[in-house]
Amino acid sequence: MNFLLFLIQLLVICLPCISINVTELVYDTEGKELSSKHNYYILPAKHLSGGGLTAVPSGWLCLHFVHQERNTTVLGTPLRLTPLPWRRSTEQPIRLSSDIWIEFHDFESFCVMRLDWHLTDLSPRALSGRRQLLAAGNQDGGRSFGVFRIEKPGANMMGYKLMACAKKEVCKGLGLYASKDKTWLAASDEPLMVVFVRKTSY
Ligand SMILES: *[C@@H]1O[C@H](CO)[C@@H](O)[C@H](O)[C@H]1NC(C)=O
Ligand SMILES: *[C@@H]1O[C@H](CO)[C@@H](O)[C@H](O)[C@H]1NC(C)=O
């Protein structure tokens, strides 16, 4: 009997330890936790301010640039988020302010199926000015292992900020850069607020 009491006490003390700190998690547009085992579209948080993020070939072999679709009805290319350190095959939630990889997933190109995000100093000749564009995939088809984070600037603010945190430098926000005919993602002091739309399985 005493032992049973002891067990119950232990359970009461330890129940809070088991529960996940929900304030740290990232949620999709349906209110579900973001997970490393689902694909997502990244769209602007502001309604009707353009479509989703998509991979566009750069002309340099397997290197792609990340663009925002201008057509608000286009969801873009599905993405997969992977928490670091990387663990094979375990489903993990995506946490705020923690290191992740971001990659276009199930991507059909002549190069690779997955294009991982990283900032690049390469820039198409047509783009004037010097800015670090957001790239996906590499010229040689290999990986770049760019590190990113998802931040929530304020509880009352709609959506999340994406930060590029390469090589333990200070993180840089990711925002939009519009040229005449395309909208690019680039390192920016005015980060784009985004939401995550889960790609439904079929
Ligand atoms: C939950 O996480 C938030 C943000 O990291 C932190 O401020 C808070 O103290 C945590 N709460 C618990 C119970 O660990
Ligand atoms: C936007 O995309 C939809 C669906 O792909 C298409 O039907 C529509 O014509 C597009 N609108 C413009 C302005 O391109």
TrEMBL record:
<dbReference type="InterPro" id="IPR011065">
    <property type="entry name" value="Kunitz_inhibitor_STI-like_sf"/>
</dbReference>
<keyword id="KW-0732">Signal</keyword>
<dbReference type="Pfam" id="PF00197">
    <property type="entry name" value="Kunitz_legume"/>
</dbReference>
<protein>
    <submittedName>
        <fullName>Uncharacterized protein</fullName>
    </submittedName>
</protein>
<feature type="signal peptide">
    <location>
        <begin position="1"/>
        <end position="19"/>
    </location>
</feature>
<dbReference type="GO" id="GO:0004866">
    <property type="term" value="F:endopeptidase inhibitor activity"/>
</dbReference>
<dbReference type="InterPro" id="IPR002160">
    <property type="entry name" value="Prot_inh_Kunz-lg"/>
</dbReference>
